[in-house]
């Protein structure tokens, strides 16, 4: 509805205009008032609207203490998750815009080599917490470690992978330090007030929202694997390691790791996230048995088979093959979409592929808007021909 201003109480400070989230308020002055304001401004006295807001000043003072971009280097048994290097690539850009250092946070046991690896991917500094306590990831010990480092060094931006570990830790840290966290960002940038602009799909992927955390520090984001580009490592790069002996007494850490059971038969597990060639099938595949056709094509291309959510929901493919907003984000060299319409929730997961080929019998299917090559026709005829032709080319090449 219309905003109602109590003219008896209004002193014309304009605060309401500034804070209205919908920017629905404007202030007008009568000609007489306008004249007085102009006289005041001409006399060099600040107009009422410019009066210093004590709250804004306190925020600015607090924010000035926070400097630097941090990337949490996720590791398991001393091996880093690739998303950490991708984030260093993005972090480097952000740090350059802010004119600050890019720092890696390495927590674990016997993990110093990861600091040197982080320097190769762009970090200038690495905070290292190395102790048996950190051998296995546990929320509490890592949370205490992160909060200790934040309190000591006050970073303005912290990035983590949107992995199981990253999602767990980022949420816990943001809650403890009382700041904002934007999950699953697809874009990160800096505005002219040093705020991190965190872009992510919202409302079921129908809009892209840019989220800011302009009152609190640090600003925290998680980013899914393969969303940011992997930077080229610089083999000669070095940096400064800052060791910190902080630990929480083991008897105060409530969770104990008794045994680690690795996920199933990892040989048969397919990582569509890291694949260079992906052939995905959607509802147009008509049934689970027809995916064998895609497997054959995938075999010829040394690729893997992915799926749309419709195909996964129908039980034709397991969930770890799902591409899209609630599935995986992929960046293959070639993505072939077979019988997939191209809903926005699917597109957000694959539109950064180097080359997209779509096969669909509906020439108006939205998938053709992102495809570099489109084949309008029946996939049951086209896919076997493609497989045969590739096979022929390969045997001829031998
Ligand atoms: P359809 O849209 O039914 O398309 C099937 C296509 O196959 C049609 O274009 C048709 O022309 C074509 N076709 C049929 N037969 C043939 C044939 N013989 N030859 C050639 N072409 C043929 N979807 C995802 O994929 N991933 C996600 O992560 C995801 N997350 C979601 C999250 C939310 C919150 C919501 C609301 C939705 C999400 N979806 C996701 C679902 C998404 O909106 C679509 O419903 C889904 O992607 C459609 O799958 P599809 O393209 O396989 O099926």
Automatic annotation (TrEMBL):
Pfam families: ETF, ETF_alpha, Fer4_7
Domain 4Fe-4S ferredoxin-type: from-to ranges: 1-30
Highest taxon listed in the record's lineage: Bacteria
Keyword DNA repair carried by entry: no
SMART domains registered for this protein in UniProt: ETF
UniProtKB keywords: Electron transport, FAD, Flavoprotein, Iron, Iron-sulfur, Metal-binding, Transport
Claim: Iron-sulfur is one of the keywords in the record: yes
Family (UniProt): Belongs to the ETF alpha-subunit/FixB family.
One biological process term in Gene Ontology: fatty acid beta-oxidation using acyl-CoA dehydrogenase
Protein name: Electron transfer flavoprotein subunit alpha
GO molecular function per UniProt: electron transfer activity; flavin adenine dinucleotide binding; iron-sulfur cluster binding; metal ion binding
General function of this protein: The electron transfer flavoprotein serves as a specific electron acceptor for other dehydrogenases. It transfers the electrons to the main respiratory chain via ETF-ubiquinone oxidoreductase (ETF dehydrogenase).
PROSITE patterns assigned: 4FE4S_FER_1 (PS00198), 4FE4S_FER_2 (PS51379), ETF_ALPHA (PS00696)
């Amino acid at each position: 509805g219309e905003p109602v201003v109590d003219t008896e109480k209004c002193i014309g400070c304009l605060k309401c205009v500034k804070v209205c989230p919908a920017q629905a308020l404007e202030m007008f002055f009568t000609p007489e008032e306008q004249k007085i304001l102009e006289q005041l401004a001409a006399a060099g006295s600040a107009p009422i609207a410019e009066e210093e807001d004590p709250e804004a000043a306190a925020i600015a003072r607090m924010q000035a203490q926070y400097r630097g971009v941090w990337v949490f280097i996720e590791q398991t048994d001393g091996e880093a998750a690739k998303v950490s290097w991708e984030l260093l690539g993005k972090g480097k850009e952000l740090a350059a815009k802010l004119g600050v250092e890019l720092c890696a946070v390495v927590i674990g046991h016997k993990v110093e080599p990861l600091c040197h690896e982080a320097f190769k991917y762009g970090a200038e500094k690495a905070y290292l917490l190395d102790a048996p306590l950190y051998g296995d990831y546990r929320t509490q010990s890592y949370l205490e470690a992160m909060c200790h480092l934040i309190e000591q060094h006050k970073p303005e931006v912290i990035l983590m992978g949107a992995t199981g570990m990253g999602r767990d830790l980022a949420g816990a840290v943001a809650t403890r330090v009382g700041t904002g966290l934007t999950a699953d960002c697809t874009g990160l940038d800096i505005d002219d007030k040093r705020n991190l602009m965190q872009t992510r799909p919202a409302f079921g992927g129908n809009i892209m929202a840019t989220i800011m955390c302009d009152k609190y520090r640090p600003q925290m984001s998680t980013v899914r694997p393969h969303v940011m580009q992997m930077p080229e490592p610089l083999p000669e790069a070095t940096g400064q390691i800052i060791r910190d002996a902080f630990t929480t007494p083991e008897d105060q850490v409530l969770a104990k790791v008794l045994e680690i059971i690795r996920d199933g038969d990892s040989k048969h597990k397919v990582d569509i996230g890291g694949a260079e060639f992906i052939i995905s099938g959607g509802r147009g595949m008509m049934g689970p048995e027809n995916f064998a056709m895609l497997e054959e094509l995938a075999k010829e291309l040394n690729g893997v088979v992915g799926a749309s959510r419709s195909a996964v929901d129908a039980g034709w493919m397991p969930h770890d093959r799902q591409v899209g907003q609630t599935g995986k984000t992929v960046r293959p060299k070639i993505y072939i979409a077979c019988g997939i319409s191209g809903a926005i929730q699917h597109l957000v997961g694959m539109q950064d592929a180097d080359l997209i080929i779509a096969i669909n019998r509906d020439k108006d299917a939205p998938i053709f808007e992102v495809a570099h090559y489109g084949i309008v026709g029946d996939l049951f005829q086209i896919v076997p021909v493609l497989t045969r032709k590739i096979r022929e080319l390969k045997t001829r090449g031998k």
